[in-house]
Amino acid sequence: RVLLGKLDKRAKLYLILHLKCALPSFPVLSCSSGIQADDDLKSMFVGTVMRKIKSRTWKKQRYFRLQEDCMTIWYKSKKAGNAHSTFSVGDVEAVREGHQSEVLLSIADEFPPDRCFTLVFRGRRGNLDLVAESAAEAQSWIKGIRKLIDNLENMGQREKLDQWICDWFKKADKNRDGQMNFKEVRNLLKMMNVDMNEHHALRLFTMADKSQSGTLEDDEFVLFYKMLTQREDVLRVFQEYSSDGQKLMLQDLKDFLREEQLHEDGVQQYALKLIERYEPSDTAKMLQAMTFDGFLMYLSSSEGSIFNPNMVDLYQDMTQPLCHYFISSSHNTYLLEDQIRGHSSVEGYIRALKRGCRCVEVDCWDGPNGEPIVYHGHTFTSKIFFKDVVTVLGNYAFKASQYPVILSIENHCSVEQQKVMAQHLTQILGDKLLKSPLDGKIPIGLPSPEDLKGKILLKGKKIEVSDEEDTAEIDDDHHRNDSIRHRVKKSKQRLSKELSDCVVYCKSVHFSSFKHSQIHSKFYEISSFTESKTRKHIREAEFVLHNARQLSRVYPSGLRTDSSNFNPQDMWNAGCQIVALNFQTAGVEMDLNDGLFSQNGHCGYILKPTFMRNTDERFDPENPQNRDGYKPLSLSVQVISGQQLPKVNIKEGSIIDPLVRVEIHGVPLDQAKQETRYIDNNGFNPVWHDTLQFTIHVPELALVRFVVEDYDKTSKNDFVGQFTLPFICIQPGYRHIHLLSKDGTSIPPSSLFVHVRITKLM
């Protein structure tokens, strides 16, 4: 009561929303406890004047303040009148202290590091660089935002849903009085993608308005929200297995887990664990039962997700040779935009490495004052220093994964600057740089990711007896567009011994033919292929065998000046390990890459199927039915419903017409896509109950992509959300699919509810 007395009416409503719902959205740092107990959040609520920095010459003061919902940061210029900007704490991935961005490094002589910090946003959004007036103020914001991020990451699906509705309430409460009249409720429904006729909306409003005041406040709004979000689709499943229609007794839950979710071993123990973990009612727990709220919370959790939680963490054998793994790989990692005029930045390396990328690329050229530079040569892309790339590599290589990073060097430097490159690599990376074979022994095969934990491997040319490989490598690995770049003549490039000595297990060589490779190639040699050459080789069955013995790298065509990507699935089908993509470009290609590497602890290494590792087998992706152990499967997906799909058109009153497309990406025989019908004007809780059927011939290589689009009969459909996962990671039964944005970031609480069945065909 004392606390409520200190809050204004709107803050009271937010607090009560959190307290009245089944679970509080901020169990540790809700608006209430934050105001009362946390000094950093108190300071953020009051607000702070800080400098927003864009360059050495663009440094402007802005007033920043944390809003009452503990989720939104508001800021404005003193000169901008009423104009202001906001961003959500949920969009912030990390906070970096000090001069840890190129922008802040550029003004390091002007502002000390203890006043500087960088907000790093999810996806491909640019950083926000800030300078506080004092070190103490900087620390308040650094620590405060980190607490809020940690709190968000510990939220369950139900808590995220509560937070989502609070955010919408704030947007709809136009006069900011902490109450909602019927007009505001109608506007809220439109903003939430709900096309509800006025009579039904008024009926729900009147039922919730217990005080008959003509407005909704406090628990009345919570009641309205709960009526609005009633999950009839889940309730139908619940009641099908409930003995009394009110709860699932232990035996009921066991029946559901066996018959629908296809759990076989330890079902009773698993059912008890679910009750303990997700059932909010202590009374139900004592009865070893699960109420509808608990059932919904289970289905909305990671255990109710379509992605098998046992495959999210590291589960594969990591002791096989490097060539037996698909390796998450980036092309021209330094570029944030296109290949012609794009901005080069060390941020490209930071973003790729934090996403689990294990092979990054540098194009090195002679730079000023004897310092090698990195940029896309013979173009107008900006330049960065090689030593800064190496520093970032040393700092970020093993934050997302402990498994080895391959630094692929395209070397255009003079011998003198190659020596400088070798010096930077050795001095900055230290023991992380692998400069000799493991254990000092003469190697007889490629080491494993486990053997190479914490190591950075250099991919490049080595000084050898033959000069032919060096000259050919220059020509083969030069992905140039002749119309915009100078043609590079074949000529011997002199190599420095110091840089050559840094190459151990990834010696770049020119590829002649599969026959030549089988006779002459060494296990530590790696060849690079353009996407077009790779497509030609894919038609040859020997490509899979070649990739069972040694590494191959595939990179985009030089014609892709817009940094677009090719479909990596075709290359994985042939066993190519290092399929380098432009990480800065969102789209289906990066969705597939993210989907494949979302398993096995996001470690950047995925063990290839046995038939692609065994040199005694001959797997042909064009004719998979000819392989030993061929066992096709049937996939049935019933798309039941969608929940709180995001708006794609910011135009007021616009509501989406959603459809769901399920795509199978794999060997050519498996490539398929099917769609549900579209639902008119309902992005809030559309219901389809449409069943889609597929045959999967090589499940070990298949990826399944769920796409939601806004149907448009006159133009191309708009993208709404997607989720991609390996076929082998699918959990059968009733499952939720938590959708991702085009950038690959989560968009809670947007989801699909599906029923999945996988059966043998032979």
UniProtKB/TrEMBL annotation:
<keyword id="KW-0472">Membrane</keyword>
<dbReference type="InterPro" id="IPR001192">
    <property type="entry name" value="PI-PLC_fam"/>
</dbReference>
<dbReference type="Pfam" id="PF00169">
    <property type="entry name" value="PH"/>
</dbReference>
<keyword id="KW-0677">Repeat</keyword>
<dbReference type="Pfam" id="PF00168">
    <property type="entry name" value="C2"/>
</dbReference>
<dbReference type="InterPro" id="IPR000008">
    <property type="entry name" value="C2_dom"/>
</dbReference>
<keyword id="KW-0539">Nucleus</keyword>
<dbReference type="GO" id="GO:0005509">
    <property type="term" value="F:calcium ion binding"/>
</dbReference>
<dbReference type="GO" id="GO:0016042">
    <property type="term" value="P:lipid catabolic process"/>
</dbReference>
<dbReference type="Pfam" id="PF00387">
    <property type="entry name" value="PI-PLC-Y"/>
</dbReference>
<dbReference type="InterPro" id="IPR002048">
    <property type="entry name" value="EF_hand_dom"/>
</dbReference>
<dbReference type="GO" id="GO:0005886">
    <property type="term" value="C:plasma membrane"/>
</dbReference>
<dbReference type="InterPro" id="IPR000909">
    <property type="entry name" value="PLipase_C_PInositol-sp_X_dom"/>
</dbReference>
<feature type="domain" description="PI-PLC Y-box">
    <location>
        <begin position="499"/>
        <end position="613"/>
    </location>
</feature>
<dbReference type="Pfam" id="PF09279">
    <property type="entry name" value="EF-hand_like"/>
</dbReference>
<feature type="domain" description="EF-hand">
    <location>
        <begin position="196"/>
        <end position="231"/>
    </location>
</feature>
<dbReference type="InterPro" id="IPR018247">
    <property type="entry name" value="EF_Hand_1_Ca_BS"/>
</dbReference>
<dbReference type="InterPro" id="IPR001711">
    <property type="entry name" value="PLipase_C_Pinositol-sp_Y"/>
</dbReference>
<keyword id="KW-0479">Metal-binding</keyword>
<feature type="domain" description="C2">
    <location>
        <begin position="615"/>
        <end position="741"/>
    </location>
</feature>
<dbReference type="InterPro" id="IPR017946">
    <property type="entry name" value="PLC-like_Pdiesterase_TIM-brl"/>
</dbReference>
<keyword id="KW-0443">Lipid metabolism</keyword>
<keyword id="KW-0442">Lipid degradation</keyword>
<keyword id="KW-0256">Endoplasmic reticulum</keyword>
<dbReference type="GO" id="GO:0005783">
    <property type="term" value="C:endoplasmic reticulum"/>
</dbReference>
<feature type="domain" description="PH">
    <location>
        <begin position="42"/>
        <end position="150"/>
    </location>
</feature>
<dbReference type="GO" id="GO:0035556">
    <property type="term" value="P:intracellular signal transduction"/>
</dbReference>
<protein>
    <recommendedName>
        <fullName>Phosphoinositide phospholipase C</fullName>
        <ecNumber>3.1.4.11</ecNumber>
    </recommendedName>
</protein>
<dbReference type="GO" id="GO:0004435">
    <property type="term" value="F:phosphatidylinositol-4,5-bisphosphate phospholipase C activity"/>
</dbReference>
<dbReference type="Pfam" id="PF00388">
    <property type="entry name" value="PI-PLC-X"/>
</dbReference>
<dbReference type="InterPro" id="IPR011992">
    <property type="entry name" value="EF-hand-dom_pair"/>
</dbReference>
<dbReference type="InterPro" id="IPR011993">
    <property type="entry name" value="PH-like_dom_sf"/>
</dbReference>
<dbReference type="InterPro" id="IPR015359">
    <property type="entry name" value="PLC_EF-hand-like"/>
</dbReference>
<keyword id="KW-0963">Cytoplasm</keyword>
<feature type="domain" description="EF-hand">
    <location>
        <begin position="160"/>
        <end position="195"/>
    </location>
</feature>
<dbReference type="InterPro" id="IPR001849">
    <property type="entry name" value="PH_domain"/>
</dbReference>
<dbReference type="GO" id="GO:0005634">
    <property type="term" value="C:nucleus"/>
</dbReference>
<dbReference type="InterPro" id="IPR035892">
    <property type="entry name" value="C2_domain_sf"/>
</dbReference>
<keyword id="KW-0807">Transducer</keyword>
<keyword id="KW-0106">Calcium</keyword>
<keyword id="KW-0378">Hydrolase</keyword>
